[in-house]
Design goal:
GO terms for molecular function: ATP binding. By secondary structure, the chain is of the alpha+beta class. It has 3 helices and 4 strands, in the order H-H-E-E-H-E-E.
Length: 122
């Protein structure tokens, strides 16, 4: 996907369609959680993990027990939590990941950047 803000919306649509195909019995809560997680990962990759002209790659793996999503970008810098703020409108992505994927997300180095992954339990 191109590294543009609109890619988060495209990723959400893709995830919903893919889950309807790969796991038609998935609960709406599960689909919603996976969609939110993918959106956060793509948004962070676009904002912090790419340069102009770069792209991001998304992957999804579905099993009966969980859905794993990955977003690959070109920058090796790992995501890091920001201090709590009631006034800042951004910087809550890792809080969302911790809430929806407790202990089931991380970062893997790739030859040209990194992959941030998360697993949502079914």
């Amino acid at each position: 996907m191109p590294s543009k803000p609109q890619s988060a919306s495209a990723a959400r649509k893709f995830v919903r369609r893919y889950l309807a195909y790969a796991d038609p019995g998935a609960s709406e809560d599960h689909v919603y959680a996976v969609t939110v997680v993918m959106s956060e990962l793509v948004t962070n990759a676009v904002r912090y993990g790419t340069e102009p002209g770069d792209s991001v790659r998304i992957t999804i793996d579905v099993t009966a027990r969980r859905t794993r999503v990955e977003v690959h970008d070109a920058v090796r810098r790992y995501p890091r939590p920001r201090p709590e703020s009631r006034t800042r409108e951004r910087g809550r992505g890792l809080v969302v990941l911790n809430a929806l994927c407790p202990g089931a997300w991380g970062v893997t180095d790739r030859p040209f950047g990194k992959a941030v992954w998360a697993e949502v339990t079914a």
